UniProtKB/TrEMBL annotation:
<dbReference type="GO" id="GO:0004181">
    <property type="term" value="F:metallocarboxypeptidase activity"/>
</dbReference>
<dbReference type="InterPro" id="IPR000834">
    <property type="entry name" value="Peptidase_M14"/>
</dbReference>
<dbReference type="GO" id="GO:0006508">
    <property type="term" value="P:proteolysis"/>
</dbReference>
<dbReference type="GO" id="GO:0008270">
    <property type="term" value="F:zinc ion binding"/>
</dbReference>
<dbReference type="Pfam" id="PF00246">
    <property type="entry name" value="Peptidase_M14"/>
</dbReference>
<protein>
    <recommendedName>
        <fullName>Peptidase M14 domain-containing protein</fullName>
    </recommendedName>
</protein>
<feature type="domain" description="Peptidase M14">
    <location>
        <begin position="698"/>
        <end position="769"/>
    </location>
</feature>
Amino acid sequence: MNNILAIWTKEGLLRDKNGDGVVDGVSVFIDLPEGLAPAGLIDFSARLGYETTSLSFSFFEPSDEAVNIRFAGSSSKTEARWENGEITISYKNESELSLFLQFLAAMKPEAGMESPVVELRDGHLYAGTDLVAVNWGWEEVSQTGAESEPKVYSDIHSLSHIWSFSGFGKNQEASPSKLLNLNISVEKPLVTTSVLREICYFAARAAMYSTSIVFPITGNKAARFQFDIKEGSDSAVLELLDSNQLRLTGKKEALPAALNELAKAKHWSEGGAFGYWEQEHLLSQKKEAPLLFESVWSGDREVDLAFKVLEESKNLEAANVEIFLSEPLDVRNRLMAEWIAIFPAIHSLSIRSAFKPGFHWIMEEVLPSLQTAGETIARMDIYVREEQGEMGLELPIRWIQELYPVDRCLEERLGLKADCVQFKLVKDLVHTYEVHIWNEKEEKQLAGCLDVPVSKLPYLDHQRYVYPVSSAVRINGDGGRKEEHLIQTDRERFYCYYVEEVLPKLRKEVSKYNPGQGRNRPLFDRIEIDVWMSEEEQKLGVDEERISSLEALHEDLYFNTLDYFAYMGEELEGKSFDAPGGVHPFMHVRVGEKPEAQIRVYKWEDKPLENLVTKAISFTDDGRFSEAVMSNGEVDVTLEIKNFDRPTQHIHPDVQQWLNTPSPYRIVYPDYSYLGKAIPVIECFLDAGEEFYSPLKMSLFKKTVFIEAGHHSNEVSSTPAIFQFMNRAGAEYENWLKEVNVVILPLANPDGYELLTKLTEEHPEWKHHAARYNAVGLEYSLVRFHETVFGEANIYPEVLKRWAPDVIIDDHGIPSHEWVQPFAGYNSPPRFPVSYFLPSAKIYGIARLSNGEYRTLHEDNVDKIVGQVSIRIRGTRIEEENGYWQGRFIKYGNQWLPNVFPIEEAPGIHFYRSASVAPSYRTIGISRYPEWIAAEIISEAADEVVYGEVLQSCVEAHIVFDLAILEALQKAAIEVKRDDQDGFTLERNRPIRL
């Protein structure tokens, strides 16, 4: 090629090294002779960086494949000529050469123009007779460029922002555009060949991260960023004089090495040293929390209290005694035999469960009597009283909920199909339950009835009540009921102690809190609760269902503690405290023994968020980083600069295996969790093998999807699924990364996962929602885009700033088995507007939608995604399981309360768009950036907490779901446009239409 006007194309100095159609490198050898130092070469190098998505610092190194640029003095003219694979630049003097290089950097020939030569004549740049660049006056250009700057800026408020996770300067907000408006000035005596080379690298790298650039890079005193290089008497020092105002000083001979160190410095998130001193300082401030107070509780067994009632009763002669106790069946059977022997006057004695009594009554009494009768049962109707507790949190179907999953258990034990067991909700039913059976002749028979004793407790908001099942002793005679004694269960007595004694004491201890506590940092560090009780613990052999009253207590202690402090915040400040502190309930089954508990509360030592910024970086004599000086205006902190050591161990075995396995993908670490764990992000793109790359620029030329996994750590399938997804995508789609970049957060909440590993040691199959939120019980997505001590909340915003993805997928989970909280209305927590008390699907989808002018486009994109997901799961086991769970969800909830148990059905899958399921708030990407994010989708698999084949089925569901969205994204068309009216701008259609 001999067309000098095409140097800024792939026919010129630019290269597509990996064959994906995108410029990902440059191929040039600038043969700059010693003693020549035209400042305009900085602009030229900035244009090189701007035109590529990745680069290595090799401009001044010879290469057989590179286009050589040579310089030759001339007495007559200044021009550039392309011939014989080389560019020769002739120049009359260095000053004119510098101006000429600035022109080449800012050159904008018309499409189709060709010429082997461009020449500087009369202050303008010509190709033959065609004007290709005009000396419009740098001051005017810079002001015009400033007017076209995007609304979202990058800034340097600390020296650590020079090379940040989002490139040059730290982005204030996420945006698909990034402007470089930079001026580099060098004190005249320092303008040497060696200094110039290093500045060229710095300028090229800064420009590479940008989608818009304002020329010139030299001589523009109105630029947003000013970088001055001046001579000093000592080793080199980089200073931040003011926001966006940088100055490097040092001895003349020391500056080239210092500039080289600065230009090639890698941010610590990429395994370098830059900025790590700030992170290291934050980590050093973390200390083990001191004990605030501890409390010990023990109580009489409800068994002993019931026995005492029998001892003191005068009405046992020929009595029918009915007792409810929250004990396992074998304990209740043993007690029944013992007490019949002790109290021979009793005519009959039954001891029933005080946890899910209706379920146990049917399975332990009604079922055996039916089996003994031997008659064929055609169907069973279970009449259930509608719940009408005054100001109660319970749903009208509370007593149906307490039967779950009785129909499937009857199917397994009796052979009666689950569909032949139906519920009848009756408002004024005399009993809590009545069981009616029909034989094959359609003859109806009453199989039994049950009245369930209940207690009454105020809920934590002091406005509503809950009605948990109570233990009780009922003594009935010929004339009816003679005595009834309600006895608080062991669980209820401990819960009341916790709510009435421990929580008020803790509230008093944290009453002198500072502004921001309870929201961006906790009121206390954590509560550790250990409870020992004799309770029932059994797996039912139906789906993943189990009986576990202590699991229910675990859930109540966790969520109700969160609610207690949420109401405290509303009472004191009109806004809930959503980050009170960690709540860690550990439940221990101790059959037949006295109930006990121990509570330890750890103090949060509140300190203001340190507003330390790096004001100076010093270099060694040989140009290496030495120390960083941070200051808050009053106190200076000096830290040694050292590399971030990538973690060799990870708490999650799947992440650990991935980190240990050679991979073509890059791993970065945007931040640390609250408890100090570095959080990896995997960036999957078609690598060109260059040293530096610009994710934002790569997202300009290719569609990008960001997938988050492990946000709620007790939702266990998304993390293993994401690694299998990558393998599957690579196998199913040849060269899948040619069209799409995929950014993956494999375990968003490592602190929650650490707690999960502790909780599952004793109870491996509980849901363990205490590990759902972060270490202080916060749904940390609520503090994204805020200054916070919770580093896990920063990952999502940082990825958006770095990559500006088109589509966001957030892989989540739902309970794999029944979720009940007897002290919160026998349902999932009241903080949730819809019920999650039983699984509703193997997997379902949720679409986040914006409000405003882009909503219709977002809705259309969701339609495309739903259609693609439906196609993917059609005819699979996933569709079959979704159908099964839909039937269960309708039977136990939706048919009675469709708003509390909603269904938004698509072919083969539920896909929710309603605000009750997918509320919109400003820390959600599509709500915050509707003008460029095309879709934000959540998947929910029934995986809390599962193993083996069930886990793998959830993994497979996530994979299929995510692959379907990847397919929809791959089909979308994008168009990149150049706008070179004011400076240079690259942009494309956003949000894309799938």
